[in-house]
Amino acid sequence: MIGIIGYGGYIPRFRIKVEEIASVWSADAKSIKSGLNIEEKSVPSIDEDTATIAVEAALNALKMAGINPKEIGAIYVGSESHPYAVKPTSTIVGEAIGVGPEYTAADTEFACKAGTAGIQMVMGLIQGGYIKFGLAIGADTSQSKPGDALEYTAAAGGAAYILGKNGVIAEIEGTFSFSSDTPDFWRREGIEYPSHGGRFTGIPAYFKHVVSATQGLMSKLSLKESDFDYVVFHMPNGKFPLNAAKILGIDAEKLKPGLVVQRIGNTYSGSSMLGLAATLDIAKPGQRILVTSYGSGAGSDSFSIKVTDLIEEKRNKTKKIQDYIDDKEYVTYAHYTRLRRGI
Amino acid sequence: MGYESSVPLFWRLIKPRYQLIGNKCTTCGNTFYPPKFLCPICRKEGKLEEIKLGKTGKILTFSIVRSAPTGFEKETPYPVAIIELDDGPRLTSQIVDWKEEDLQIGRKVEACFRRIYTDGKEGIINYGLKFRPI
Ligand SMILES: [Zn+2]
User: Element (H or E) spanning A94, and its range?
Assistant: First the structure.
């Protein structure tokens, strides 16, 4: 059985409230908050980027896995904000956590689902017998044009998953993907901020892919909505995942533990992976979790994950997602601008 | 602090800088960081072994940098402290994620992975360890 043997997250400490951003643009904070179902978002410090977030998350995952890092045979880091245009983030992570040099590594890109694509790649290498353990990370420090609607949600954070066959805390029962060429969100090389298709990002993009991948997974594994105790969907805001659940006939309560977006914003490649980590933090042995990521451009990876007895003893070895959510310091818009421009 | 932007030097220091790898003299039992080529106490009699140091320690002394050297201007004000690791060695490092009340002698800190220095817009990004209050 292939599964998660350790996981960990990282969220920078700074937060900015929707009210603080709205006041700068003379916008109505109340309607923005209810429209996006979000309170505040995380902001990286001046010396934090996707690599530093990935390293911190990976160290937490390694602590839980309790393995010698030299046994990790693959590292994939998914992000749309890799610090270098050319030079991998994955080798920085490998060196910082003591992996290698005998391992394969690559950075993956697919908007917000580059991290879950990495999980699938690691699953394949383990299944094929090429590696014993593999590490997949989704991390981002997302950028938004000042004044753009994205400014309320574009946040920073990441999560790391070590997969293997021994010491599994949650079995990955299966995965199913759904992809198509849909230009809902993009950024050209050398351009600082991304562009998006406004309302076009909804029905034909997010909902079509999330719903299709989820339905595909359930029919492939002969499972139905009621077989899942918890559900995590990619969280571009606090509304979309709840609407996707409604379309699929899933009880909104099942999304609650993983709906981290309200307190930290959209962490892009980190989003669904942090939601899963927050859910694993509270799930009981035997419970089943459905996770579906979404990446613009567009595609979704869906997973069925079943928690094992081992989770109880292993998950207390590392910091919980809730610990990171609670450990925060608010910044003003001026301070926020200084932090974001610093890099 | 003497951060060099020379790529080969940066590369040679990656391992000790990323992972807090120091060394220990098995003759006298002292640990060193950064790793030494020769035990300063035992000289030729010393036998040095590479060890991974623990990430926690405490602040021995600190000062707040308000007028920073080139490359660090955007980070001011920031504290720089001499930290004594629980494993023994002392080192100088920037303190991050701090509040006024964290800046105290004896305050417990732990290492975290951060950007140290960026060589302009086109150069290499130097990563390494800084310390945060715990
Ligand atoms: Zn000695």
Answer: helix A89-97
